[in-house]
Give the backbone structure.
Amino acid sequence: MPEPIARRWPDETIVCAASGPTLTAEDLAYARRRAHVVAVSDAVRLAPWAPVLYSSDRRWWHYYAGAPEFRGHKVGVGWKLGDSSPIPRAPGIHVLEHTGPEGLELVSTGLRTGGHSGYAAINLAVHLGARRIVLLGYTCGRVGGASHFFGRHPSGLEESTDQHYAAFRRAYDALVAPLAELGVAVINATPGSTITAFPCAPLMAAFREAA
């Protein structure tokens, strides 16, 4: 059984920062002064100071050897339903149990994955104690042909297709009801986001709503 995630920030605002093409260092700096930040996968390039780094992609962790330069709490998830095995050649990662693709896992030893890291990071933010979650870099599509703020993944890591993005968008709908039951508000502050499950607002307005 994995170790549970500690409820570090009860009833506070947490920013989940994914690596979509509109993510900027400026927005992250603004968020850093106002909330706790969970960096999702390559978003850590712009937020090496984040207290938490999350990725569902075990190949990503393996490719980057467990991100040894990152000094915060590193969290991953099992590769299939019921799995919480360590990630080979990627030490120091708190691996939670994969408890399914849909919905919201309430037990803090596991995560629902939604098929991608951004979804699971929202579940992780709930375990960390979030009462409000602000999304950055959750474009879930291309902008000017780019899928990520840094361009393309290196060879060996998968690029998302239009079919992937469509499935990701549908998955978020399964989070809406359980988040509402918990009283957790999600505000999407990602410019140009294609995700329709959550209300959208510019970043500064999102923090005013979160106040």
About this structure: Residues 12-210 form one domain.
